[in-house]
User: Fold these one by one.
Assistant:
Number 1:
Amino acid sequence: MRETTYDVVLYGASGFVGRQTVRYIAERVGDEVRWAIAGRDRGKLESVRAEVGIDVDILVADSQDRGAIDAIVSQTRVLLNTAGPFALYGDAIVDACVRYHTHYVDITGETPWVKGLIDRHHLQAATDGTRIIPCCGFDSVPADLGAYLLVRYLQRELGNNCTHIKAYYQLAGGVNGGTLASGLNIYDRGELDLVSNPFLLNPPESVPTDIDRHRDPTSPQYDAEMDTWVAPFYMGVVNTRIVRRTWALFDRWQESYGTDFSYQEYLKFDPPWARLRAAVVVGSMALIGGAIAIPPLRSLLESTLPQVGSGPTEQTMNEGWFRCELLGWGSQGQRVRGLIADVGDPGNRATVKFVCESALCLAVDFDRLPGGAQRGGILTPATGLGDVLVERLKQAGMRLEVETI
Ligand SMILES: NC(=O)c1ccc[n+]([C@@H]2O[C@H](COP(=O)([O-])OP(=O)(O)OC[C@H]3O[C@@H](n4cnc5c(N)ncnc54)[C@H](OP(=O)(O)O)[C@@H]3O)[C@@H](O)[C@H]2O)c1
């Protein structure tokens, strides 16, 4: 193992999510983990350090200053990145992580940016055994670990492959300015076509011929399994791509989910008014999409929504919650049910728990990770962290359950 000054560096530590990662790591780890905080503004980082009441080093580098980024990345075994939009601030960091063999996690949901990382870095990181794992926040850990748990349960406990999984989300919480900025940046770069490709993140040889079966749902529908109305889940365009990449990577390593596999996501509404609420969500998404394309409406929208650097109140974040229910079908007709759930705003409290525990898997539990020391590449939470992350999340109070129906 390479000698480094730190086990984990938190980059972007003065951002809205970044500040919460500092608090989480400070409360969660003792002296066994050597960590530091990093970002572009020393003054802001000093304030975070004082606010949390910790005595850790501060490392400073603007994301565009490749020399300064190299100096940070070369000093740590693991880099946890929360500075986004990642398409604007993430390239030099991942590039340095690949060159210095520094393992990496982040909370991006920007699939076009992840596609670029795969094209530029997968081969080298795979050759070197460097684990680069984007999408370790609410996008896409529940989806990826949920699907993984159901598939492996069907295989190990019931002796069957899994043919199909449906995930149903219910949630309460707020929105961060940084999240909106990342979405708008994808729109401004003209990348919506990439976003709509169901197999954007798959190796080309793993894309099935029956692609239409995997297209994103677009309208509200009655769901017989749940006996209520559902809408397309707005983060499904990220999560389904990660689950499909996991499916393809495991297949390549002879740890297959099965050849005939599909995964979709929905937002679930309990009665009363389930049908109406599903229709309102779909209609609102279409209206917002339309308004963004008209400059005066976009300016109006932007002025009313949270700005970069801000997010929900402490009360909203503490009172938030999420439930991701999963149903899986086995190749011989068996059915299994899964649940991933926690208290706290999904985009903040849960995201912070997901990404910090992911970084700690790499820093503390590396020898137990799936695939051994040689596994590397642009990975997913399930392929890069798997059961070790499941265990850590359970220890951190999250519900992750699977059972036969
Ligand atoms: N996966 C999920 O569920 C999830 C949830 C929440 C957020 N996110 C994503 O996480 C990202 C951050 O969200 P947030 O709410 O924390 O946003 P934020 O508060 O706006 O934070 C942005 C961070 O980027 C840093 N930054 C800006 N320009 C930089 C530069 N040139 N060099 C280096 N750093 C720079 C900022 O530094 P300063 O502090 O110095 O300004 C800040 O630390 C967004 O991309 C968002 O979409 C994902």
Number 2:
Amino acid sequence: MKQMSPLEEIRHSAAHIMATAVLRLFPEAKLDIGPPTSMGFYYDFDLDHKFTADDLKRIQTEMKAVVKEKQPFERIEVTREEADSFFRKIGQHYKIGRLADIPEGEPITFYRNGEFTDLCAGTHVETTRNVRAFKLLSIAGAYHRGSEKNKQLQRIYGTAFPQKEELKAYLHQMEEAKKRDHRKIGKDQRLFHIDDDVGQGLILWTPSGAIIRQQLQNFISEELRKQGYEQVFTPHIGKLGLYRTSGHFPYYSDSQYPPIVHRAELSQLAEEGCSCAELSNKIDTGEIDGYLLKPMNCPMHIKLFASQPHSYRDLPVRFAEFGTVYRWEQSGELTGMTRVRGFTQDDAHLFCTDEQVADELKGCLYLVKVILNTLGMTNYRVRVGLREPDSDKYAGEAENWEKAEKVLLEVAESMGVPFTKEVGEAAFYGPKIDFVVSDVIGREWQLGTVQVDYNLPERFDLHYVGADNKPHRPVLVHRAPFGSMERFCGVLIEHFGGNFPTWLAPEQVRLLPITDNQNEFAESIFEKLFAVGIRAFVDSQSDKLGAKIRRAETEKTPYMLIIGAKEAEKGEVSVRSRVNKSNEGNFSVEEFISRIKHEVENRTLPQLAES
Ligand SMILES: [Zn+2]
Ligand SMILES: [Zn+2]
């Protein structure tokens, strides 16, 4: 039995209470599981009736009744046979399936509250009365055991907190989050598209979304260049053998797209009577070599490094690539841009000596700091993943690990941001740092990582010639501090609530001629802006000015330039900015251009309002 945290206990107990209420209202419901989550809890039900918003209210009311009844959670240890016959008797077949998951020899426990008995390992609060602040939130479809091959069940999500005020604050945050949902803003502002015919989890960037991404990439590339990184490009597929050497295949095949084997080769094998199982085995063992859609960029950067001899004087070598990789996520896990199947990492691999690791890590963290500060994400923390002491599951020398961990901690400390040590969270090949940023409404987003790796240099037999003229093993640092461009842009959309700073905004200036008579002058200003790289658009529709202003406001364009007869005559524009929401007065076109250019070049932030 795993002891849950007090918050988890409240949430998980709330799931039991919800199941109790659902069975009172819908006795024919079949129950699957109801674990706590990081945001609350859920329970999966199989029921012909489709839950409605009204049902949620009724269930919530019934839950309150169950809470009032102050039912104790009672733990009952049973035998496998007893459990089996109990669930057969009450016709809860999912529970019988879950019972079979419990390994032989482990205790099998029921938890009972009132009339409801669940198969559960615990743990719970004392009585239902301990769950005071909860709310049911939504209904979603969820495949049994997360597999599309199984029946789709109805999942009810809820959340619970120890105190009513905490629940209230959370619900307020959720409301804010809904307004900022990048899927909604992405649609409203036409930033990206996901198309069933292309595939779920595969992002199509619209011209507007592509501008944001391109500006971000330019910015990151500029900073990388300053820090001595070199840009490389590598292909989207590579031979399976490469990923066998790196250890990514076949061990992680569940999270990869299937290997690519040429049709002609498959037909030939089929003709020879090769069964599917044999074929799969031949692919796994390397008897057939196909290609793999790239799940990681590292092996290719390693091959680039290995393609040249290196002396210690050449190190560190820093290869950067916005490298697109593909991973197989369960369809139920996919969310807009933040959980996808194809994504472009802001990836880089640093090859250095043991002595250089510290400075390289510092460089990585410094870079992250610069970029996050520019984006107004000044509130972030780092998690330092360390190895479990006395465990033999790690690659590399204990001595190097100690050094790397010490360095990571020193570097984290020197950054002046909050950090936590997480023992046992290191990768088996080296310690790491994860970045977690808080957005303007206080939600945390995990971005990317910096990892020290002693394993891949070994597997690929990398070396450089040291000052002693002997071959030495370099250390590899992997870093993708923003995770991926998809995820990072999704997070930024929510962070800015669609109000992008001028340098990122797909449309920076909207020109609003008051009548058709000013269209020509507006066009001439457009040309001037275009010539200096400012992204503008002339709204020459024949609407009233008020309507044009509202449209530009809804679309969150940073600047409106209003042009009437007077302005056209004087060669001026009346400036209205998104930040000030009022007219700032008249300026010459040149004055405005120099102001906006300054803002773009300095990547100035807009004031981030909470709406
Ligand atoms: Zn339970
Ligand atoms: Zn890597």
Number 3:
Amino acid sequence: MKDYKNKDITVHWLPELCTHPGTCLRLLPEVFSLGSRPWINVDGSTPEKIMRAIDECPSGALRYSLPEGSSVDPNEACGVGNLAFKKPSEEPVKIKVIKNGPLLIDGNVILIDSAGEIIKEDCKMALCSCGRSKNPPFCDGTHRHPK
Ligand code: SF4
Ligand code: FES
């Protein structure tokens, strides 16, 4: 996990989970820009706008947290993109099938490998359904490339 931070917000980036649909680039190009280095500029917008954009990340590759002393209202920071976010346990898990793309998990799940080991516990995941991901069982965007 890579962190990008200022005094008010930390953006966490898990590149191996990104499915590359570009939601973050579209929603907040002043913060998320592939043409810039680093590609995440946490000073490019307000923490609130950054948090709302990250809440929309379908794969969970982007997350946020508030550093100690942050001036952001914690009530603003309780969206699904918060690193510590947990869905209410009584909510059913939703799985959205993306045509020619991943299965998007929306709900608390425990992902277990063939040996019975826990791979990940989370409320947001994008799972590969094409069989070509280099980071199975997670989608890594490979489905977008021609075979
Ligand atoms: S999956 Fe998340 S991090 Fe990757 S491009 Fe989409 S919104 Fe951005
Ligand atoms: S569905 Fe995205 S890499 Fe397989």
Number 4:
Amino acid sequence: MTEATAPTSAMRFDPEIRQRIAAGQTPAISARHLQHYYGTGELSKQVLFDNSLEIYPGEIIIMTGPSGSGKTTLLTLIGTLRQAQEGELFVLGHSLHAATKSGLRALRREIGFIFQAHNLFDSLTATQNVRMALELADPGAGRRAQTTRAQAMLEAVGLGERTGHKPKQLSGGQKQRVAIARGLVHQPRLVLADEPTAALDEASGRQVVELLKKMAKEQQVTIVIVTHDNRILDVADRIVNLVDGSIRSDVLVQETAIVSQMLIKCDVFAHLSPRGLAEMADHLLCETIPAHQTVIREGEAGDKFYLIRTGRVSVQRAAQSQPLAILKEGDFFGEMALLTGQPRNASVVALEETVLYSLSQDKFRQAIAQQASFESEIRRSLFDRQ
Ligand SMILES: Nc1ncnc2c1ncn2[C@@H]1O[C@H](COP(=O)(O)OP(=O)(O)OP(=O)(O)O)[C@@H](O)[C@H]1O
Ligand SMILES: [Mg+2]
């Protein structure tokens, strides 16, 4: 029998990832209580505060946030280009604190870096620049094979016609694409990209993003993209928002959309805008209830609202032999006691393993208060029309 899980914060439920966790897959990146300071002594300045994050193989994460919020710093820590002073960081199964110098070098070969400064070699052609990465990562491969791979990679980013050009003969966007090809050519297991599409027009940006998506989905490459470019948001499995050095939100995009659609069917949330729904979804806690376990008990005080993500529950009263109702995916319960302040008027029991989202009484009340102001606003506007 499955154990009930402790509620996990926010939108950390994703059917595929849950399966992988259950199968014992380790995250590609795992940060625990990560802190970072620049400078020492009196000049020391903390820029990352207690950040925890887990990213699984094949996930595409978009990290965003205001300038100076610490995005590049976090990316360089993950990329082993800097060492965090406090907290733990595991990358592709290696603890960065415990790693030796040669261990870190080997690890870096499994990472593809696409950073803002291109650092292309002016004297080398596009192909030669890209091939450099292969020579470092896979020195044993034959030169001709390396050249073929470098050219194929340039082709994939839309630079098939420019393979023999040197950086000076290329536009900013074309140079950026050479840098992208160089970051990807050695088939890294992890790609860290800092504003990869900033210098690109819409079509080239899309081409690069599609390529990253293909790598993630077909080869389980993990991809972290720092960006302000909202044209590429649709590629993200998750959006992580960093503000003032702290992860402010970390949401699964598709899951938020599914849950928002579920919430809107409940009167209490029906007035919320997509943004309001997403915010509400962000406050939900996810828990797994094994079959036959009671979720709420008749007569007890109500403290949460529940939404069924998967599974089925039975609503029953002690005095009655037949259940009052069987609820399934997308149904919700527990709102009556929160609305009326009365004890729970029925018990709810899981009929099978059931995944629930719950919302605290406080957040639930907040939604009602917004609804009240929404309604009074409408009343006023109707009244003013007269
Ligand atoms: N090498 C450094 N030495 C000292 N302070 C630094 C260094 N690099 C960054 N900082 C400071 O750390 C903070 C976070 O910087 P970081 O570059 O990580 O932000 P960012 O979110 O990537 O910003 P942007 O969107 O502008 O690229 C900023 O206050 C910045 O001034
Ligand atoms: Mg930055």
